[in-house]
């Protein structure tokens, strides 16, 4: 942010006030305007810092800092972290996925959330395949990952573990 226009405006206002008091006051204002420039810049920086302190309190845990580069202040904005999504968020190219633990590990029921970014055409195909099988996209993706990691063996109906693909039960 360039403070020069504000300091120049202050100098013009001082000169206009001195013009009303005569030549001696005008000469004094001209002599004082150069040394007052640094004081005016410092005062403006203090005002900006105080204002950014107020903004930071409102943005917490985000912040706004004022940094000085040469004679000009620079604002650095650090936004607050994005909140964890509570519900499944559908974006054109991304879908949250809840992954099941690997089939060989003990299943303690813990689920974890990851964000999977897919090209739009793959996302559409995954949605179509999931709908064709009567599954949610999440369940379909869990099954697809499980199939890929378990060497091509199809998981059972719960989406976890392996199934022989055969029939079990009594036959008459």
From TrEMBL:
Query: Locations of Gly residues compositional bias?
Result: 162-172
Q: For this chain's UniProt record, which GO biological process terms are given?
A: regulation of DNA-templated transcription
> In terms of domain of life, where is this protein from?
Bacteria
Q: Where is this region: Disordered?
A: 151-172
Name of the protein in question: Toxin-antitoxin system HicB family antitoxin
Record organism = Streptomyces violaceoruber
